[in-house]
Design a protein that fits this description.
29% of the residues lie in helices and 18% in strands. It has 239 residues and is α+β, with helices and mostly antiparallel strands. The strands form three sheets. A four-stranded antiparallel β-sheet has the order 9-7-8-10. Strand 7 and strand 8 form a beta hairpin. It is globular.
Length: 239
């Protein structure tokens, strides 16, 4: 317990073992996560230098990655990246809406909010959806993503050299969206950086992580299933 307290996390359950997820609360006053600040660090990861709080781990984000996160949420930044907690002037990419809005990167990245004026652009949260895990041999990368059923999103990635590892089906897109968001903040908490292609960004690059060493597809997928269970998210079909 003292080791987690030393890095700003208050354990809420008995010690689960060095590699078990330990339900805790982030104690950082400026934590950008949800109000309850519940986290599930592994003591083994913390001992290797990972931050205990996945939300605080995302506070320092490069400008190009921040831009990609906003675009993925359907927002076009109109100003340079101001920081994770500073309102960022953006324009909704939904042509029907097109409103100028001022979300923070923290709200978009940790809570999944995009345009405050509409919720109909792109991904539909009230319709069935998939969470998928892809891998790319040349890039030595894995990628997580979400899509509504029948959109051809996965097939688009397959045409660019990605290979499908696994999918999870959800009756509601909002559950798939929440799981994807939790997966990404956990990846970044381990300092697993997005993978560029010869130094260049590409469609979906902000949802990638390198493969190699301790990071393998089987372990990544186990992490997906663990998070789904912890979050008690509904699903359709079998894993």
């Amino acid at each position: 317990m003292s080791e987690l307290l030393a890095v700003g996390a208050q354990p809420l359950e008995s010690y689960p073992g060095v590699n078990g997820r330990w339900r805790s609360r982030c104690l950082a006053p400026a934590c950008p996560g949800p109000p309850e600040r519940i986290i599930y660090p592994r003591l083994g990861w913390v001992r290797r230098g990972a931050q205990a709080c996945k939300w605080c781990a995302g506070v320092v984000i490069a400008g190009d990655e921040a831009h990609g996160i906003m675009v993925a949420a359907g927002l076009e930044p109109l100003e340079p990246y101001p920081g994770v907690r500073v309102p960022w002037r953006c324009r909704c990419m939904n042509q029907v809406c097109g409103a100028d809005v001022f979300p923070t990167l923290g709200s978009v990245n940790s809570r999944g909010t995009g345009c405050s004026e509409c919720a109909e652009y792109g991904f539909k949260r009230d319709r069935p959806a998939l969470v998928y895990l892809l891998h790319h041999q040349r890039l030595q990368a894995a990628k997580v993503g979400i899509c509504n059923l029948g959109t051809g999103r996965i097939e688009k990635h397959l045409g660019r050299g990605w290979q499908l590892h696994k999918t999870l089906s959800f009756a509601l897109g909002r559950d798939a969206e929440r799981l994807e968001r939790e997966i990404l903040v956990e990846w970044r908490a381990q300092d697993w950086k997005p993978v560029h292609d010869a130094g260049q960004a590409y469609d979906g690059w902000t949802e990638t992580t390198p493969l190699g060493g301790d990071i393998c597809l089987a372990a990544l997928w186990d992490g997906v299933l663990e998070l789904r269970s912890l979050l008690e998210l509904g699903r359709r079909g079998a894993p």
